[in-house]
Amino acid sequence: MGKYMAIDSHVHLWEVEHGIVNDRPVYSIGNGKVDFGGEIRQMMPPYMEDNKNTVERLIANMDYAGVNAAVITQEYIDGNQDKYLLECQRKYPDRIKIFSLYEENDDYLLDGFDGLKICAAKFKDKDLKRLLPVFKKVEAEGKILAIELFDGDSQVEDMKYLIDKCPDLKISIGHFGMVTTKGWQEQIKLACNKNVYIESGGLTWLFHKEFYPYDSAIDAIKEAIDICSVDKLMWGSDYPRTMTDITYIMSLRFVEETNKLTEEEKKAFLGLNAQRFYGFGPMKKMEDIKNML
């Protein structure tokens, strides 16, 4: 269905959700709903009635939407999914890259994973300089470090320090710098460094009040292009949470159909940049699947 070769740089998977939010448990109650620290939330589409967000369902959605590959990241609210992600990669080694979860201790995995995910926005201690040994280890092992920062520019200076100390470390900054918050441009500026990229997972969530076709989100992409060039920006969906109100195809189509971006910008943002950054092999646009519409 897609018009371009596409790689989704921000996807979540789990068989059993067992996370934490504000020191309280997150657990499934069925029909895509969860108890989110004492509040009922629709965490995933209701057709995931068993609350299993499996790799098989993801691949089916990717095939239909024309998405070639995906990067599986992690988040505290889902719980550590390292073991399940290793199973997923064994099943679909050419379709996904996987990131283990850093949980503010030294007991984290790198072997078998493509990189490490750090949820810095959730840290009680916002100081990131203390993570230099972690950054150096990921760099030494030739892995990628994915990180989500606290809103705005509060952790940007620490990131500058870490980037300077780890010049060969490939870093992906998530949620498009929390684009709807003050100071988001400072996070985007970090991508002016050689090995730092920005991924847009959750962009439709951040602009949800505006809704489809997310004109302001496109404007934000254009502003980011002016800051760090289109070659440092990557598309991401934040599947399956953003699929509670839009379809997977819609998360891709609003970029494909805009007339504010050039064809070359769309190709780079939707797939080519992620293909290069994450080390995916040769790919071309997937064949269209005709549907009943």
> What is the total tally of β strands?
12
Low-confidence stretches: none
Physical arrangement of strands within the biggest beta sheet: 1-6-7-8-9-10-11-12
What structural category do the secondary elements indicate? Answer: alpha/beta
Strand content: 15-25%
How many helix segments? Answer: 9
Q: Could you say which overall geometry the principal axes of the C-alpha atoms support?
A: globular
Regarding quaternary structure, what we see is: single chain
User: Averaged pLDDT, please?
Assistant: 96
- How much helicity do the residues have? 25-40%
SSE topology string:
EEEEEHEHEEHEHEHEHHEHH
Radius of gyration, whole Å: 18 Å
Distance between the terminal alpha carbons, to the nearest Å? Answer: 12 Å
Describe this structure in words.
The chain has 293 residues and is of the alpha/beta class. The protein contains 9 helices and 12 strands. The chain has helices at 55-65, 82-91, 132-140, 156-165, 184-189, 203-206, 215-228, 248-256, 263-278, and strands spanning 7-11, 18-21, 24-30, 33-36, 39-42, 69-72, 96-101, 115-118, 144-147, 170-173, 196-199, 233-234. The strands form 2 sheets. It has an 8-stranded parallel sheet with strand order 1-6-7-8-9-10-11-12, sandwiched between helices. Strands 2-3-4-5 form a 4-stranded antiparallel sheet, with no helix packed on it. Strand 4 (33-36) and strand 5 form a beta hairpin. The model has no long low-confidence stretch (mean pLDDT 96).
